[in-house]
Amino acid sequence: MEEKNNPKIIVPRRRFLTKAGTLAAGAALGAGALGLAGPFSSESEAKAQQALPKRPWAYKKLDPEKVRKDGYDIFHNGRDCMEGSFAAIIKSLAAEVGHPYTIIPCELAYYGGGGGMGWGTLCGSVNGSCAAMSLILGGHDNRKALRKAVNEIMGWYSTAPLPTGKTDKFGKYGKMVQSVAGTPLCHASVSNWCKESFFESHSPERSDRCARVTGDTAARAVEILNAISDNTFVAVYVPPASVSKKEGGCRSCHGRKGTLANSRGLMDCVKCHEPHEI
Amino acid sequence: MEEKNNPKIIVPRRRFLTKAGTLAAGAALGAGALGLAGPFSSESEAKAQQALPKRPWAYKKLDPEKVRKDGYDIFHNGRDCMEGSFAAIIKSLAAEVGHPYTIIPCELAYYGGGGGMGWGTLCGSVNGSCAAMSLILGGHDNRKALRKAVNEIMGWYSTAPLPTGKTDKFGKYGKMVQSVAGTPLCHASVSNWCKESFFESHSPERSDRCARVTGDTAARAVEILNAISDNTFVAVYVPPASVSKKEGGCRSCHGRKGTLANSRGLMDCVKCHEPHEI
Question: How far apart are CA B121 and CA B169, in angstroms?
Fold first, then answer.
């Protein structure tokens, strides 16, 4: 990948390495099993196909403190952060409301642990909370409310000292050091906490910290959902100056309708990029 | 948040800003609606509660080229990248296998578009593909296979020139410029492509590029799932030197059992951090 000569690019930028992944040959269509069963294990299962209920789905306001503890417990039950936060909310609704929350397979969220099986991308507790919000609010068909909810949980997670301290009473190690992630990314969140606490990134204390953050994030998601439900939701998160579209903000040039308009995102730019003169 | 004096921290590091989010007051438990309905809209719905089938679930090998086109189309149908990749796989299985894939509400994945409603975190096409993999493979109870699958799709996405070119025949703008994301993050993926192509980040061409990447990523996920199903899966992705645990790799110090052991993640470190002397 050669450097191109774009007259709009006026500041130096780091080049990304080019290392092409290899596409496996297209697999032929046919019967197979992922160490899994064949089509239907019983007639009754085949007959059990049914439509999901029409939107809007029922919602009952949940108790954030119950969800906080549930998220903590589910994490420690081996399900990690994404399934922890997702299941804490969905299983509470299954208990309070019933169908269709009873038929949501929470294992679909297991992959998100450690920012995607340890990759350190989006924190699983945020990813799982957002998935629950998307399911409950109805996704695309209620996207205005969903955008507000996702923006708030992403911003809260990026700026709040975590764990919140509301987990101290049931957490394994009593009161715990807090840190601020700066972004919704697992890598930054875990690394910052390790640097603040001096605990190692694979220590049992770090694991308990992430269990607490799982509960805290699911609880915050429930607070947001409850407020939307009550029509009392007010955004608290204030974006950093870097993502402002006003003059001096990175997005004033790099964002939509900017001079460069060559970027997308709402994470605080200066967490990974050095600020530069225009 | 003050700088702490950790004797293990031997190189300068950037401090993250401390801006505490405010926790909304805990919401009381009670009936409410997110612009949504009350508990049950009919007796029949209440009775429709049922258990999901026991694991393992059925799987049939899918045609990657069909899934590629489906992902592209679902994206352009307003569902964006995460629901696009998730639904391309799940709805194909619903057609090929039936229950329980017929009752998976794909709107749970809508939030992931643009790396989480535009936040630019984990690319939605990866997020949705991983969610589908987690659901199909069974999450925690089949975590060894899931880890391989997620690692492969994360690595492939980070290093492959995208879009692959297999979408040129149905994409709106014919043959398209490729770029390499370097990480599984939407922000880097979109920004790199804009810099290569000179198209703006909110242009219709960029949108079509992301629709193609949605199809490409779902297709790659299906290739991986098919190979796992056939017991022929071989990892192709080779991690970059930075994440190596061998001497000189960042994780040899920052990762598990390293001198610092203060970090977590598998994204290429030097995409955001400057390399430094030890």
Answer: 29
Could A16 and B182 be called an inter-chain contact, meaning their C-beta atoms sit closer than 8 Å? yes
C-beta atoms surrounding A49 within 10 Å: 14
Which residue from A minimizes the CA distance to B266?
Answer: A119
Q: Looking at beta carbons, which pairs linking A160-164 to residues 24 or more positions away fall under 8 Å?
A: A160/B20, A160/B21, A160/B23, A161/B1, A161/B18, A161/B20, A162/A189, A162/A193, A162/A212, A162/A213, A162/A216, A163/A209, A163/A212, A163/A213, A163/A216, A164/A212, A164/A216, A164/B23
- With a threshold of 0.95, tell me whether the complex ipTM lies above it: no
Indicate the pTM of the whole model. Answer: 0.85
Interchain proximity A240–B139, CB inside 8 Å: no
CB of A197 closer than 8 Å to CB of A179: yes
Of B83, B122, B267, the CB nearest to A139: B83
Distances (CA, A) of B44 to A53, B47, B49: 10, 5, 9
Residues in chain B: 278
Distance in angstroms (rounded) separating the CA atoms of residues A154 and B119? 8
pLDDT digits (tens), chain B, 278 positions = 333 444 343 333 232 222 222 223 233 233 334 544 444 344 444 444 456 889 999 999 999 999 999 999 999 999 999 999 999 999 999 999 999 999 999 999 999 999 999 999 999 999 999 999 999 999 999 999 999 999 999 999 999 999 999 999 999 999 999 999 999 999 999 999 999 999 999 999 999 999 999 999 999 999 999 999 999 999 999 998 888 888 888 888 888 888 888 888 999 988 888 888 77
Tokens matching residue B201: 């980040």
